[in-house]
Amino acid sequence: MYDVIILGGGAAGLGAALYSARYKLNTLLIAKEMGGTGLIAHKVDNWIGEPGIVGIPLMQKFIDHVKSYKVPVVSEEVTDIKKNKDGTFIVKADKTYKSKSIIYTLGMKHRELGVPGEKEFSGKGVHYCYVCEGPLYQNKTVAVIGGSDSAGLGALFLADYAKEVYVLYRKDKLRAEPITAEQVYKHKKIKVIHNVNVKEFFGDKFLKGVKLDNGKETRLDGVFIEVGHVPLNELARTLRVEIDKNGFIKVDRAQKTNIKAFCAAGDITNANTLKQFITSAAEGSVAAESVYRYVSQGIWDRRG
Distances in Å between the alpha carbon of 51 and those of 46, 64, 174? Predict the structure, then answer.
């Protein structure tokens, strides 16, 4: 029997694990892969105190810090969560685990574009991780689909390798952070094409280009899709955790959900509108404090 089981190994999960350990809670962290979205982050300019740090070394610092508290970690994929009549939780993965409380930090997955050719050329020119596959396109022509901060950062990253980078966006202005958008628009190797949608990916064995809804075709060696993310809320839904209309878990300011002893933190929550490492780590630490108060004192007062 654990005091708390933390689901997810990104910034929120690691923040929760650190504070749970500091509160002397019997803690278990379950994550199929440690590091979360930090593993695909290129340059993190907004982590206070370490401007420009790359995502992987930043996450490794998180992991090393948690390991220093000897928090047990299992690399398994959770398939089900149930709540017993006595208020405890059963978590099913490769093995079955029992806990007095849960901190849910499973975050999001990349949203697919959903057009012809996307699945056919996935991994053959169509990608969702510019940090992972971007360096393969040295001196090639590539495109980023999307106009978010992730899309802008992706274009800047790819410009270090590719000879030409297109940004294909359905609106007339990038919605990236102003500093990121400014860098994209000024970059000599990046061309932003506004008010277009990709209708189809085409090629033979590998991607050759995209067809746009303005009737034009653009020849490309690779495409990186950055059109948002889908919250990984399926396991929470099985417990009837409240979800908002966009799929995010509803939490109060103490990271508590409508289910007693079940907290959520990070990108999965409706409260974390910024979706950054700093806010996710902070939410994880707050969730740990809420769990501590529940486990040690039986307190579960929601805070609006």
Answer: 6, 20, 23
Looking at the chain, the number of H-run helices and the number of E-run strands are 7, 20
Sheet holding 207-212, edge to edge: 198-203, 207-212, 217-219
Number of CB atoms found within 10 A of residue 210's CB: 29
| pLDDT tens figures, 124-171 | 999 998 988 899 999 999 999 999 999 999 999 999 999 999 999 999
Residue-wise pLDDT for 230-243, tens only, equals: 999 999 999 999 99
- Map out the domains of the chain with their CATH numbers: 4-109+229-297 (3.50.50.60), 112-225 (3.50.50.60)
How is 266-295 classified by DSSP, letter by letter?
A: STTBSS--S--HHHHHHHHHHHHHHHHHHH
| DSSP β-bridge partners for residue 161 | none
The DSSP code for 161 is T
Q: Say which DSSP state 263 is in.
A: E
Q: What angle do CA 96, 264, 150 make, to 5 degrees?
A: 110
Q: Inform me whether the pLDDT recorded for 43 exceeds 80.
A: no
The type of residue at 134 is G
Which residues have C-beta within 8 Å of that of residue 74, sequence separation ≥ 6? 28, 29, 30, 31, 93, 94, 95
Is the model's pLDDT at 42 over the cut of 80? no
